[in-house]
Specification:
By secondary structure, the chain is of the alpha+beta class. 42% of the residues lie in helices and 15% in strands.
């Protein structure tokens, strides 16, 4: 695959989004987020999403000129309305507000309502953790998973993330969705004609299946679904934290991201930021955390959460990122249109 620099990837991505009608601020914020995901090897949340966002714009599922704004403040809590636009500029605003409030009150809760695809949740926590704050992030997504013993989808993959700053090392970044596997894994299995293990999904009748095509027509399963309902209960907790608590759509009210036509998702994201200085104090917090990490690393094969992503990011920063040829052609084509327009105006 072609390799391009992070700067070029961001420029191409921002230009592509702007040329189809997205506002400059939204295009820039989204480009940074997608390229950051791509740089960590998380291509499912990377540049391939641009074609999805463009399709949603064309089908009136997203407001390209949305300007997120704060609609409520109450002590350490703040609510940001994404105005049915891209999630990333709204999350940027929510994090800005949350960092200020966490420094003031020791803790903050910032919410984003009426939003879209949130991308990699842990990446929203990078700025707070670099500033020495502990961060938690939650989001719902279009429904793909049933509740325990249920048959129809009510929860999204509902990602959860946490970030813990360290004294003199890369932060701990924990990021996971609550489905047993990603939808992309099912799509890949379907394309290759391979069966999937039992426990990954059920068909449209709610019966366990090893057929990925039937799984795509049915529901994905939460982690641990075959042995307990714990994953589904975690998904429920996140669902309520990212919807009912902040006043936006439930997962089952949002059309899939993976179809062109559908409704405006109006999903929710929640962020809790905590200042260690308000609790243990920074010195004691860092001392205790490093003691804990040292204990983890007493076993030779242990890898800290987020370490693999950081390694990939460092490599991408110095060597560039691989981009699928079709995606790069699309980005370059839109960039060429932009260049032509600028020359004509000149």
């Amino acid at each position: 695959m072609p390799v391009i620099s992070i700067a070029d990837a961001e420029r191409y991505a921002s230009t592509a989004l702007r040329m189809v009608g997205f506002a400059q601020k939204a295009a820039d914020s989204t480009a940074r987020a997608l390229v950051l995901a791509e740089s960590q090897g998380i291509s499912s949340h990377g540049l391939t999403r641009i074609s999805q966002y463009i399709s949603h714009l064309k089908n009136d599922r997203i407001n390209p000129q949305a300007e997120p704004l704060v609609i409520k403040r109450n002590h350490a809590c703040v609510v940001v309305d994404a105005q049915a636009g891209l999630a990333f500029p709204a999350c940027d605003l929510a994090i800005d507000e949350g960092m200020h409030l966490a420094r003031k009150f020791g803790i903050s809760f910032s919410a984003v309502v009426r939003s879209h695809h949130a991308g990699v949740m842990a990446d929203h926590l990078r700025r707070p953790v670099e500033a020495g704050l502990v961060g938690l992030g939650f989001s719902n997504a279009p429904a793909v998973m049933p509740t325990a013993a249920g048959r129809h989808p009510v929860f999204g993959t509902n990602p959860i993330a946490a970030a813990f700053p360290r004294r003199a090392a890369a932060p701990l970044l924990i990021d996971l969705s609550l489905s047993e596997v990603t939808r992309g894994t099912l799509v890949s299995a379907a394309k290759s004609g391979k069966q999937i293990p039992l426990g990954w999904a059920v068909d449209s009748n709610g019966s366990p299946t090893t057929d990925p095509q039937a799984a795509l027509q049915g529901s994905m399963l939460a982690i641990g679904a075959t042995t307990s309902g714990k994953g589904a209960m975690l998904a429920m907790m996140i669902e309520l934290m990212a919807s009912a608590l902040i006043g936006t759509n439930f997962s089952f009210e949002a059309s899939s991201f993976f179809v062109d036509s559908g409704n405006v998702p109006q999903l929710g994201h929640s962020f809790i930021l905590i200042d260690p200085a308000a609790l243990a104090g920074n010195d004691l917090y860092f001392d205790r955390l490093e003691l804990f990490i040292a204990e983890l690393l007493n076993d030779d094969d242990v890898r800290l959460p987020g370490a693999r992503r950081e390694t990939r990011l460092q490599k991408a920063t110095s060597e560039g990122i691989e981009v699928h040829e079709d995606v790069l052609k699309m980005l370059q084509s839109l960039s060429s249109v932009s260049n032509s327009a600028e020359k004509t105006q000149g």
